[in-house]
């Protein structure tokens, strides 16, 4: 981004490297590949990992509350929870009159998370190895603002 960005009226071809959206997408692609592979070896995907981690930290969330926290539609969350439940990683209580159904991590789910945490920590470190601690904090803050602008985590 050298200050020579095109305006909407400029006929010159756009340079991908000058487009922040492109850079975000490209960085996301490059960073996500090892995450997908590393978590797949643990028997889960990044979305399943995030749901398990959220529930492990806040056991007993409602399905709707979990969907909001994970930024997943309620319909997609229902399918995701069904798969995690079938895999023995989560349990859901049945809603009773006046109460919401709640979600709980099973012992197998906690074991899967325990196996995944070192992988996630290593992948996180490798993803930003070229950045200083200060650059990492600044990048996290800036990405957080972009994410918030689009509806949050």
Topology:
Elements: H1 20-40, H2 46-57, E1 61-62, H3 63-70, H4 74-86, E2 90-92, E3 102-105, H5 107-127, H6 133-149
Antiparallel strand pairs: 1-3, 2-3
Features of this protein?
153 residues, mainly alpha, Arc Repressor Mutant, subunit A, 3-stranded antiparallel sheet, 6 helices, 6% strand
Query: Spatial order of the strands in the main sheet?
Result: 1-3-2
Q: What is the distance, rounded to the nearest whole angstrom, between the alpha carbons of the first and last residues? A: 27 Å
CATH superfamily: Winged helix-like DNA-binding domain superfamily/Winged helix DNA-binding domain
Assembly type of the chains comes to single chain
- Cα gyration radius (Å): 19 Å
CATH architecture level-2 label: Orthogonal Bundle
**DSSP helix fraction:** 55-70%
Poorly predicted ranges (pLDDT <50, ≥5 residues)? Answer: none
CATH topology, what is it called? Answer: Arc Repressor Mutant, subunit A
Supply the CATH class.
Mainly Alpha
Order of helices and strands: HHEHHEEHH
Gross morphology is globular
Structural class: mainly alpha
- Biggest sheet architecture: 3 strands, antiparallel
Mean pLDDT: 90
Give a description of the structure.
With 153 residues, this protein is mainly alpha-helical. It has a single domain (17-149), classed as Orthogonal Bundle (Arc Repressor Mutant, subunit A). The chain is 60% helix and 6% strand. The protein has 6 helices and 3 strands, in the order H-H-E-H-H-E-E-H-H. It has helices spanning 20-40, 46-57, 63-70, 74-86, 107-127, 133-149, and strands at residues 61-62, 90-92, 102-105. It has a 3-stranded antiparallel beta sheet. Helix 1 crosses helix 5 (107-127) and helix 3 (63-70) crosses helix 4 (74-86). The longest helix has 21 residues, at 20-40. The two termini are 27 Å apart.
């Amino acid at each position: 981004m050298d200050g020579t960005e095109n305006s909407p009226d400029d006929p010159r071809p756009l340079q991908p490297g000058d487009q922040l959206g492109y850079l975000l997408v490209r960085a996301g692609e490059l960073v996500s590949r090892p995450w997908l592979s590393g978590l797949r070896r643990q028997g889960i995907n990044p979305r399943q990992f995030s749901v398990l981690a959220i529930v492990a930290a806040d056991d007993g969330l409602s399905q709707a509350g979990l969907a909001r926290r994970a930024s997943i539609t309620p319909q997609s969350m229902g399918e995701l929870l069904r798969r995690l439940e079938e895999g023995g990683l989560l349990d859901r209580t049945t809603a009773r009159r006046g109460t919401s159904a709640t979600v709980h991590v099973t012992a197998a789910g906690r074991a899967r998370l325990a196996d995944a945490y070192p992988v996630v920590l290593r992948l996180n470190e490798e993803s930003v190895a070229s950045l200083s601690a200060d650059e990492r904090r600044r990048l996290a803050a800036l990405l957080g603002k972009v994410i918030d602008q689009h509806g949050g985590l």
